[in-house]
Amino acid sequence: MKHGLILVAAALFSLVCLSADLHAAELRLTGFGASFPYPLYSVWFKEFTKTAHGVTVDYHPNGSGAGIQELINNTADFAASDVAMTPEEIARVGNGVVLLPMTAGEVVLAYNLPDLPTGLKLPRDVYPDIFLGKITNWSDARIAAANPEIRLPDLPITIVRRLDSSGTTYALTKHLSAVNAAFRERVGAGASVPWAPNDKMIAVQKSYGVTALVQQISGAIGYIEWSYAKKAGLPTCVLQNKAGIYVAPGGKGGAAALAGATLPDNLIAWIEDPAEAEAYPIVTFTWMLFYKKQSALKSETLRNLVDYGLTDGQKLAESMGYIPLPSDIVEKVRSASANIR
């Protein structure tokens, strides 16, 4: 009888230890930041946790600027940003920062015009002037000249922009500043910029907020990542690139733009105005931001998350409206992920 009680006690003790081990292996990762890659990241995280047993990944797309601030405040396990980080911001993070470009995307100009479902062309000297408030009606002669086959409506242009600190705004304004001197001098590039005064400009939070308003307002135009327009069924402008070619988003233009990109050692590069003939003109990398130092369990899990994004995750990118990373960039990112410790 005594021997039996000892065996029962030993079995119970083993169960308690096993339960403790399982509990110790449970890990909840919380991330904040860019809404630009959110549709893709949300799928990545869901698929990753199916095989990473005991791991939960919560991601809050509160904007690139807010994500960077969460990382600086040490209130996130990781962040995401289309603006990367400045050296000054990195210096404020006590545990160091590892910046990894994980995907890329096209910033599109989505519009809502009656009886015009798709195919509107905008020359490279025209779309900056729309955002400067110099072109205010869809029937403008310069838009009409580029679209002789289209009967354009006599309708005011309503611009929908981001209100929050936004990497999508940064990518757009960096491009507009590169191609238009007046825009560069009046507005400049940034996650938040001093837009030219315009009573037909509406500011709203997040990419999905811009998408929703463009859908609702006749005559609206707004800038979002291609995946948002694709999912919402919004038509997007065909933009003239540096080579003078009109290129629509969602085709080979994004990959052509990335093909000309070279990543330096810090893995931060901008594609302000790609020169390739087939390139879509507004393309950007987007980064995940990690601490250099954290617990062994957390660092290993985060490295595994990065590896998933670079392998199976890249296979999902194109179908969801993003640009798969070129193989040489994938290898650079994989090597740099070893710095997550």
From TrEMBL:
One of its GO terms (biological process) is phosphate ion transmembrane transport. CDD domains: PBP2_PstS (cd13565). The keyword Transcription does not apply. It comes from the Bacteria. Keywords: Phosphate transport, Signal, Transport. It holds the Pfam family PBP_like_2. One of its GO terms (cellular component) is ATP-binding cassette (ABC) transporter complex. One of its GO terms (molecular function) is phosphate ion binding. SUPFAM superfamilies: Periplasmic binding protein-like II. Residues 28-308 form the PBP domain. InterPro entries: ABC_phos-bd_PstS, PBP_domain, Phosphate-bind_PstS. Residues 1-24 form the signal peptide. The complex is composed of two ATP-binding proteins (PstB), two transmembrane proteins (PstC and PstA) and a solute-binding protein (PstS). Belongs to the PstS family. Part of the ABC transporter complex PstSACB involved in phosphate import. This is Phosphate-binding protein PstS. The lineage of its organism: Bacteria, Pseudomonadati, Pseudomonadota, Alphaproteobacteria, Hyphomicrobiales.
